[in-house]
Amino acid sequence: MPDQPEISSPATAFSHVRPPDTAFRGDGLRDFFLYRDLGIAEATRGKVIAQLVIAHNAPEKGTGWHRHEAEFHIVLMLRGWARFMYEDKETLVSAGDCVHQRPGVRHYLFDYSPDMEYLEVVGPADFTTIDVAPVCDVPESKGWGV
Question: Is the whole model's pTM more than 0.70, yes or no?
Answer without folding.
Answer: yes
